[in-house]
Amino acid sequence: MMTRHSQGRRITWPADQLIVSKTDLKGHITYANRTFMAVSDYAEPQLLSRPHNLIRHPDMPRGVFKLLWQTLQQGKEFFGFVKNSTANGDYYWVYANITPSYDLDGRKDGYFSVRRYAPEAAVGTISALYRQLKIQEQGLERQEATEASYRGLCDYLEQRQQSYHDWVTRLYRDTMEVAHVG
Ligand SMILES: Cc1cc2nc3c(=O)[nH]c(=O)nc-3n(C[C@H](O)[C@H](O)[C@H](O)COP(=O)(O)O)c2cc1C
Fold first, then answer.
1. If you take atom 23 of ligand 1, which residue's CA is the nearest one?
2. Is the pLDDT of residue 2 over 70?
3. Residue 87: helix, strand or coil by DSSP?
4. Domain of 78?
5. For the domain that residue 131 is a member of, what is the CATH number?
6. Does the model's pTM come out above 0.90?
7. Does 23 fall in a domain?
8. Does residue 84's CB lie within 6 angstroms of at least one atom of ligand 1?
């Protein structure tokens, strides 16, 4: 079952359980499933109509969220590793897939996020990268910090000559395979 440690520790949960939420166009939560509530330690009334940055962890670089919103606004789906905070100050790592959702008339009415348990090996790679990106944000105002870590992420990908999408989906796939073999 789910393991919960003392303050500031990583929360784990069964890898076959998905964390699901839905938001409106502005990122306010309109739906949360039971796994979301169990892992984040929030009850439904504390989540509904709240902005999704409620569970934002301070270790997350701003540039990653810039890329997330930019991708969604282009009508594309976003994949990414996200460190989230729980209500009591613990944290958990997810591999998120966020997609636009459409009403019956085909108008975009919000976004869905389905999050999977992030494999250990991926978390190692990602947390080292995010630490570097946070260093690039240091001492900067919000907007400049966003640009700095976004640029840092682009540089990282350029060095590897990969698109963000190819790099992130490959990292998930490769580390999942290791988790299954090991
Ligand atoms: C469907 C959806 C799911 C999101 N899930 C998360 C999440 O799990 N954690 C998170 O920090 N931000 C999430 N976001 C992004 C937040 O809306 C927000 O951009 C981010 O937390 C940065 O907040 P800030 O700009 O106030 O620092 C999600 C956005 C959408 C549209």
1. 53
2. no
3. coil
4. 19-181
5. 3.30.450.20
6. yes
7. yes
8. yes
